Structure formats: structure tokens, C-alpha cells
Amino acid sequence: MEEEKTLEQRAMEAFRKRLTRQAVTSLQVCVHCGQCSEACHYYLSSHDPTMTPVYKMDRVRKVYKRTIDWLGRVAPGWVGAQDLDAELLSEWVQLAYGSCTVCRRCMINCPMGVDPAQVIGLARGVLTEIGMTPKGLAATVNVHLESGNNMGVSEEDYVETLEWMEEELQAELDDPRAKIPINKKNARLMYTFNPREVKYFPYLIQAAAKIFNAAGEDWTLSTESWDATNYALFSFDPGAAKIIAGNLERAVNHLGAETLVMAECGHGFRSQRWEGENWVGHHYPFPVLSFVEVQAQYIREGRLQLDPTVNDKRVTYHDPCNQVRSGGVIEEPRYILKHSVMDFVEMEPHGVDNFCCGGGGGMLSMTEFAKARIAAAKIKADQIAATEAAIVATSCHNCLDQLMEINKHYKLGVKVQNLSELVANAIVWE
Amino acid sequence: MGHVIERLHLFSLAFMLVVYCIRIIWILRFRLVKDLARTKGSGLTGAVVAMTTMFRPWSMETTRKGFIQWLGFAVFHVGVAVMIGMSFVIPFASKWLTPPVVTLVIATQALALVAGILRLVKRIREPKMRAISSPDDYFSLTIVDLLFGLCPLATLRVPVGFELYFLLVALIIAYVPFSKISHYIYYPFARYFYGSYLGRRGIVR
Q1: What's the whole-number mean pLDDT along residues A328-352?
Q2: How close is the nearest chain B Cα to the Cα of A32, in Å?
Q3: With an 8 Å Cβ cutoff, are B69 and A35 in contact?
Q4: Record: contact B37-A273, CB cut-off 8 A
Q5: Looking at chain A, which residue has its C-alpha nearest residue B140?
Q6: Cβ neighbours of B62 in A, within 8 Å
Q7: B40 at the A interface (CB within 8 A)?
Q8: Is residue B64 within 8 Å of A349, Cβ to Cβ?
């Protein structure tokens, strides 16, 4: 009978399996220059030497050095190599899940091209494989796999909410032709939601519907699969991520839609647009766009007439990490805001250099790390306060929630809104 | 003595070359993750931009804000190039060592030594640097700093300094493939992966 493997043995197997050429390059090339420390919101907010990206990455690198690297295997002490044991695994949970939002700001500031997020992802993936993922995050993924969306919204509740929003929309516009189409075959676009919109923010469904109706779009929603999120991106679980991404792909194919449009959800967009095809192992037969890109396209093509004077308060924009540093949606939100608000002001730094709000990496689902998450957001709070803006716009639900918490904690006195809210508010109905 | 040094130098170089080739084959044996996503930009453009980032300190926030640190990096690495280059010039092309060249060598090594010592001081003094430093980090930096000091002596053929320089160069050449100094072997791979990632996603154009 085969002897049962220890936790450490299983972790080491998972570790070796996940060593790709890209990951090994990052692990080999780091020279410990420490330059990444100035890029990390955790380090800048605390100045704790154990909060630098290189330190966190190095706790994973120690195992690599001990087991893979030539010199580390012979003289571990010389290169700081260490065996993987239960204590180090517990430390990985704290560092990889509790002190890093995998925002990749350190990556773009590394002179060597190291991607610490990839190494942190390696640790997260190992922890997931041996059942050490923080419970909140694991539960979010499991609920998605079991119910088709991460909040367990039933199909009945979903459809009811959509019908309610359609009635509201028709009443507000005084137009019975305004529709929220469900399961329409061969539409040009299939749109998705974050379940939070269905459960807590239905007015965002209405905002999206207003935009599609005003643009005269041929669109639809699906009841088969509609959740834009994919928290398996954060637990680095390619098996679960594949199932979730595959669900959406199948829904688009069944309805025969030409394009899949992801709601304003940073990680959801990145998951389906940039990682999904790698998870499912083939090309989708349709393109995937962010709702941000679609809104910018409507404005560019003159399909939306906007009156920015209705949004007369000062607005600043927070770039979601997964959208800007891992998704390439950089100019579109700025283009949208320049056409839909009167006073748009950038926070500094912004765009690719923007600081993470602290809500990335699935952090909001892991309540045990909440205190550190809010403390690390001091940088973001200072950035927002410096703009003197009344509204912080963003295009991600995790950012939205985190920004709301920061607003309360640091008493910023701002309103946090999605881009689509501002756009929908500025629409001139003919 | 000259022949011994030449032979030692050539042996170290041959050893380094063989180990480097093995290193490259070794890294190529790890699974390459291919990106199936539709591109938004050019991976090649991204890779080219990434390869040249360090020559454009204004393009990265940390070098933009830490320009002095970047200058130290530049001086240090120019110093390394000259210091290694001199291990070929002295034994094999000594006719190039005209007074202006010698002055230039001494100047680059002196500046690099200052930059190297500052790096070492930073690594020892700053808690965040101490927390990530291994003996290899200290040793590699110390030996390179020593070579900055010895290279001008070898160029001027000062006894003892000359022999020590070549002995240390031989040592470092043999040690490099196993130490952090080998980062330059992986640098093109890392920058390529990083740049093509950003380029394909339309983040760098």
C-alpha cells in the first residue's frame, strides 16, 4: 500500500509542477536590489521590511533555491535557501494571501523584469492545491462552481431582478420599447454582471441597460451563465478557473452572440479576456471586450449623446490593477470621463503607475486580512485626498467596495461610482 | 607568471562558457507558458521597449524618482564592463593601453568603486535590504568592489595588485554562473517575457 504523503511532500509536488520557464526566470534573475519596495502600497504604508515585494517573493524563492537551484542545493545557507515545512507554508498564507494584492506595480518597476506576482501566484497555487487557501476565498470559488455565480443567486431571483429593472427603466424613460433582453438568439453582444449588481446594486444593471438602449445596441443577457467574476484567478486554481471561464464561453456559443462584454469588473475582465483562453486551452470563437471599451466605442462612434454638465462635480479616476496593468484598458476610461463629466482630474500617479486600492487579489473575500488591507490603503487615501475630487470613479467592483471602505475609514467625504453610472446620467435622450 | 595568468584566465573563461551553455539549456527545459489570448498590441514591440527600459530612466517610476540610484547603477555596470574587459586587454592587447585609455580605466573604476561601496553600505545599513540579503549578496558585491580597486593597479602593472586582480577575475568568472552575478544571463529572458506580456496586452505601445 502506498504511504500517505505529508503536507510538505504534497506542497513540494505542487511547487515543482508549477515551475514554468517564466517563473524560473523571475526566480533566477532577481538581484535583491530592493527597488520594488518603493512600488508596493503595503511597504509604503508601513515601512515594515517584511512587506517589500522582494521579501515576500524571497520566502518562496528560498524553497526554489533549496530544491532546484544548483548552489542552493549544495550550500543552502550561502544563498538563503530553506526547506519547505509547515511553518513556512503558514508564512506563505500570510504573505501571499494576506500581504499582497498581486497588483503587479512592483513588476513594472523592476529593472530586471521580475514578476513577483507570478511567484506569489505560485505560492497561492500550491496553498490552494494542499487546501490552505483562506476560507473566504475558497468558499467564493466553491459557491461559483456549485451555483454558477459567486453569490449563489438563483435563476429565479436573477430573472426577477432583471424584469424589475426593465420596468423601472421603462418608467424612468417613459418608453415601453426600452428593454433588458434575456436569452435573445444571435444578438451582437452578450453582457455579463457581477452578482453584487444583481444582489445589492441593481441600479448598475439599469445604468448598463440605459447605455445599451441609448446606443441602439443589439444585446442580450444569458440565464445559462452570466457571472463576470472568476475568483479562481486569485486562488491560482487553473482547474476551477477553466470551468468558470468555460461556462461563459458556452453561454455565448449557445446564444450565438458575436461578442462577449464583461461588466465593469477588473479581475472578471482580465480572467475572461486575457487568461480564459489559456485556461480552456483553445481560442474562443468570439472576441471579449470590457464594458469600458464598449462605452468608449459608443462615444467615439457618436452612438451616445452626452451632456457632461449634469456631472458638474470634480471627478477623479481609480485605475483597477487588473484592467490597467494586466488588461491594457488605459485610455478608454479617460476618454469616457472627458466626455461625460465637467471636471475630470487625474490622481498622481495614474494609469499603469496607479497604486492598488488594496482590494485586489481577492482581498475582500478574506476578512482575516481586513485590518492590514485598510492600513495599506493609506497611499490610495492620500492620492484621492490630493485631487480634491467629490467623486471617485472606477470600473471594478472590488475597487468600488474597497474605495467605499477607505472613504469611510479615512473620512475622505467622496462618492464612489462606476463609470457607467456617470455615463448613464449624462445621456441625452432624443 | 604571465603565461600562468593567461592560462588560468582562459581556463576560467572556458569553464564559465560551458556552465552558461548548460544553464541556458537547463532553463529551456522548463515548460514555456504560451499565451492563447487575442493580442491587443505587439509582443515584439513590448519586448524591444522592455530591453531598453534601463537606458531610459524617465520611463520607470522608481528610476524617475531615484535618479541618483539609477546613476549609481549605470556607473557600477560600466565599471564592471571595463573591469572584465581589461582582463582581456591587459594580457592580449596591451598596445591599446595608451595614457588616455589608462586614465579612462582608472576613472571608471574609481567611480564604480564609490558606487559599489555605497551599494554595500546600503545593503548593510537599511533594514529592508538586510532582510533580503544572503551571504552571496554580500560576497558578490564585495568581490566586485575589490576588483574595481585592483583593476587600475593591474592596468599600471603594479606588482601584487596585478597578480591579485587576475586571480580574483579567474575566481569570479568561475563563481559567476552559480551566484547572483549570473543575473545578466537571465536578464534577456526576463525582459523578453515581461515586455512581450505588456506588449501583447497593449500596455506598452
Answers
A1: 97
A2: 7
A3: yes
A4: yes
A5: A31
A6: 35-36, 38-39, 109, 111
A7: yes
A8: no
Could you tell me the CATH number of the domain that includes residue A354? 3.40.50
- Give, as one character, the DSSP assignment of residue B179: S
pLDDT value at position A280?
98
Q: Note whether A282 contacts B201, CB cutoff 8 Å.
A: no
Total structural domains in chain B? 1
| Residue B44 resides in a domain | no
Distance CA A294, CA A300 (A): 10
Out of A250, A269, A297, pick the residue that ends a domain: A297
Q: Chain A contact for B33, CB < 8 A?
A: yes
State the nearest Cα–Cα gap between B33 and chain A, in angstroms. 7
Task: Look at residues A106, A145, A113 and name the one whose alpha carbon lies nearest to residue A235.
Answer: A145
Number of domain units in chain A: 3
- Report the C-alpha gap between A329 and A324 in whole angstroms: 5
Q: Mean of the per-residue pLDDT values for chain B?
A: 93
The whole domain housing B166 covers 2-39+65-184
How many interface pairs between A and B have CB atoms less than 8 angstroms apart? Answer: 152
Mean pLDDT of A327-351: 97
pLDDT of A106 above 90: yes
| Residue A259 belongs to domain spanning | 137-297
User: Alpha-carbon distance A292 to B27, whole Å?
Assistant: 39
Is there a single domain that holds both residue A216 and residue A291?
A: yes
Whether A127 and A143 share a structural domain: no
A153 CA to centre of own chain: 20
**pLDDT tens digits, residue range A135-152?**
999 999 999 999 999 999
Q: Are residues A261 and A382 in the same domain?
A: no
Find residues 56-95 of chain A whose CB sits inside 8 Å of chain B: 58, 70-71, 77-80
